[in-house]
Amino acid sequence: MSSSDRLRDHAGQGASTVAAHRARRRLRADRARQLADLLRHQVLGGAFPEGPLPHESVLAADYRASRNTVREALDLLRAEGLVDRLPGVGTVVVAQKYPHGLDRLMGLAETLREHGRVTNEVRTVGPVPAPAPVADRLQLPSGTDVLYIERLRRLGGLPLSLDLTYIPLDIGTDLLGEDLENTDIFRLLESLTGRPLGHAEISLEAVNADAHSAAVLQAPQGAAVLMLERLTHLSDGRPVDLEFIRFRGDRITMSGLLRRSL
Counting beta carbons within 10 angstroms of the beta carbon of residue 58, is it exposed (0 to 12), middle (13 to 18) or buried (19 or more)? Predict the structure, then answer.
């Protein structure tokens, strides 16, 4: 074999070694994400009420993973702000996410009543000309005035969501005299109209927090927030409440019960 052939052969072996190393790293990263998903579910479900998670060696044995995989999984949860590593203590739960159900039509205070009192800071309230998409969703003529409400909602004093709400003015005018700081709008709508709410159309997506939303929610600019768009109807089908709700993704988790129907 010539010198050049030996060099090419050696280079080929080196390339194979590098490729194998990268493949092992990718596999470990995949397993770390899988383990992080399992541990996240346990953390959010209250599986560690006393705070500390089991030792890395215990987690490695329980999940049949390497110690390095466990460390990478915990690093992912630490980056999310769910856990932290404390000297002499280990990895502990440092944050709580609150459950928001998607299978019942409820206001935030109703949804989270078991976790504390939801307070509302009304930042803006008053009539505005309805933007075309808002008028269309509320089945109003374009340019019709609607009541616009912007609220910062807190739980336990911590910012949880920024709610932008549009309501037809024939109902919204009466809302102006109500206690918007301490009462869910859903309850007020039912009281003022004399009708129960019927159903809502929702969409949920992750968006990056703009400068205004980030400042109000006390979150880093560009942080991921959960955007819930909800159009709520009275029991007679009339749309009465269009909301754009930005939830801090590190403080809320969405859940629901889905049934398969073909």
Answer: exposed
Provide the pairing of β-strand 224-234 with 239-248: antiparallel
Whether the CB-CB separation of 225 and 206 falls below 8 Å is answered with yes
Strands 239-248 and 118-129: unpaired
Q: Which string of DSSP letters, residue by residue, matches the chain?
A: --HHHHHHHHHHHHHHHHHHHHHHHHHHHHHHHHHHHHHHHHHHTTS-TTSBPPPHHHHHHHTT--HHHHHHHHHHHHHTTSEEEETTTEEEE---PEEEESSS---HHHHTGGG--EEEEEEEEEEEEPPHHHHHHTT--TT-EEEEEEEEEEETTEEEEEEEEEEEHHHHHHHTTS-TTTS-HHHHHHHHHSS-EEEEEEEEEEEEPPHHHHHHHT--TT-EEEEEEEEEEETTS-EEEEEEEEEETTTEEEE-------
Pairwise CA distance, residues 119 & 144, whole Å: 30
Output the pLDDT for position 9. 64
Q: What's the mean pLDDT in 55-80?
A: 89
Give the residue with greater pLDDT, 86 vs 166.
166
